[in-house]
């Protein structure tokens, strides 16, 4: 019998402002796709639920405490010759605090953009997933 395959789990957080613009962070000094925009995101930690992970990432990266969120998308993501991820995207429905850059060593800019004005310098897998989310799709597959 072969060993079970264990993909990596990552959580992604979609935060909207009152204009329905999405909060994006520009990666800086991370060693992976620096200079591109992403949403608050990260690996799931041991003994942490998916929702707990998403809420932790939002607090760590942009300083907000999520009161309510919902899972809006699941994605299979394959990084060639590297890792396979199951990505879970959570939309923030309510939060407290002000969005700010709480990790200036990993992010050098926060911007708010409309769905139809995503920046060209964006993590490709995130762009792919967001476009699927905007179309109302609950699942997508992305291979780098």
Mean pLDDT: 95
Secondary structure tally: strands: 8
Counted up, domains total 1
Distance between the termini: 30 Å
CATH architecture: Alpha-Beta Complex
**What's the level 1 CATH class?**
Alpha Beta
Query: What is the quaternary state of this protein?
Result: single chain
Radius of gyration: 15 Å
Q: What is the name of the CATH topology?
A: Nucleoside Triphosphate Pyrophosphohydrolase
Biggest sheet record:
5 strands, mixed
CATH superfamily: Nucleoside Triphosphate Pyrophosphohydrolase
How big a fraction of the residues is strand? Answer: 35-45%
Helix content: 10-25%
Shape: globular
Given helix and strand content, the structural type is alpha/beta
Give a description of the structure:
The protein is of the alpha/beta class. The chain has one domain (8-143): Nucleoside Triphosphate Pyrophosphohydrolase (Alpha-Beta Complex). The chain is 17% helix and 40% strand. The strands form 2 sheets. A 5-stranded mixed beta sheet has the order 4-1-6-5-8, sandwiched between helices. A 3-stranded antiparallel beta sheet has the order 3-2-7, with no helix packed on it. The N and C termini lie far apart (30 Å). The model has no long low-confidence stretch (mean pLDDT 95).
């Amino acid at each position: 019998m072969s060993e079970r395959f264990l993909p990596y789990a990552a959580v992604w957080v979609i935060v909207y402002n009152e204009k329905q613009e999405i909060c994006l962070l520009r990666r800086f000094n991370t060693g992976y796709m620096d200079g591109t925009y992403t949403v608050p995101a990260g690996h799931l930690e041991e003994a942490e639920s998916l929702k707990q992970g998403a809420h932790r990432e939002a607090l760590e990266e942009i300083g907000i405490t999520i009161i309510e969120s919902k899972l809006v998308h699941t994605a299979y993501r394959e990084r060639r010759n590297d890792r396979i991820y199951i990505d879970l995207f959570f939309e923030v429905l309510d939060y407290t605090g002000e969005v700010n850059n709480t990790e200036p060593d990993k992010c050098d800019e926060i911007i708010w953009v409309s769905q139809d004005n995503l920046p060209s310098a964006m993590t490709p897998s995130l762009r792919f997933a967001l476009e699927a989310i905007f179309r109302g799709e609950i699942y997508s597959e992305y291979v780098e």
